[in-house]
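This protein record is not my work; I was only asked to verify it. Where you disagree with what is written, explain briefly why. This is what I was given:
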Amino acid sequence: MRPAVRPRPLRLFAAVAALIATGQPVVALPAPPGSVQATPSPHAADHVSEDAIIAALYAVISGPAGQARDWDRFRALFLPGATLTGTGAGPDGTPRARRMTVEDYIARNGPVLTGRGFFETETGRRSERLGAVTALLSGYESRATPEAAPFDRGVNAIHLFNDGQRWWVVAVTWASIPPGETPPAGLLPD
């Protein structure tokens, strides 16, 4: 039995094929809402692999007091609409989460990171990949200077996406290791 109306993708394909056959120019249509289009980045090396984008994520927020961070580089790491979520405990000990856009993160943390030294390094990683998506846990230590003792240790849960052209950060959620809690094995030094 033949459908009365062709599904839209087949109609579009047939229309494009007819234009090509008649020598008519074919104009690209804009991407549908919610789709991802690769955009050129001045830091193209940041997007070539999972390792590269994770290294860039840590590098761009790190630096000495008084050094401005490269927020354009930071923005270029993230998929449009990406989120960053900090977790912790409220004054009464109740778990809480603060969800931010990339711009929220820059506005909230930019002055703090520039105002004091902040160096965050990855200490271990576990990841799982399925097709174009990678979910990973990345242990971290935060220091005021590269030589200082860590003032914070925790885990970043990071979701990545590869659109066939480059890697994107989709989401980052972080948690400091609470006193007395054992960190996940292999992510943080003893």
